[in-house]
User: What shape does this take?
Amino acid sequence: MKINPFPGKLTKTTLSLALIVASICVLAIYLWNGVIHEDFRESLTIEEAQSLVEFQLCKTTYVPSGIDPTPKILYDAEDVNIPELTYIRLQYRRVNDQEKIFEIYQRYTPDAGMRTTYPEMAHEGAKVILLDWISYPKFLSEAEMEVAMTRTQMASSVFQTNGTVWWLYEITDPSEYRSTMTKWIKDHVEYRILSYLPAEEIEKVTLSMLECSNP
Assistant: This one.
């Protein structure tokens, strides 16, 4: 079931607020991508990764054609004593050139679920996350982020599937920034999928994970 999302049009006030949020989000992106970390490990087995977190890891049962179904698994902890700052990343790459196509992030959260409406700043915060993800490992400067925020157009939709609320964000323009993200929370685990996949493909990956497929 699709629920009508909030509007996504930027105003000057919203842009200013969004850029304040951006400075906070940049730090969060550094954590999500392993730039700042107390403990960082890569090329783990799923069993090794599971032993490092308290929650049950989930894997997608749907992988688009041409993408290696065996992900590279990474562990990143900004503080190993704080569950909210410890997460697992499943990175899926294209078979022919090993180009990163989508990543699934999982970490503990005290939140029980997501809402069907959020302030517009949260919408713009999602745009910041996508912009930094596609530019990684070279993060955008404040000036570059301001230009990118005004140039990009992003659509957002919210869905509810079997009681789980999940969001889909898609940068639709310009073409060099096109990317997608879904986000949901279930059983106090936050999931994010960031990708270059078309919206219909990231939806399939997301739906395959809503009923957690335990490895």
DSSP finds five helices and nine strands in the chain. The first strand starts at residue 2 and ends at 3. Confidence is low (pLDDT under 50) at residues 4-10, 30-34.
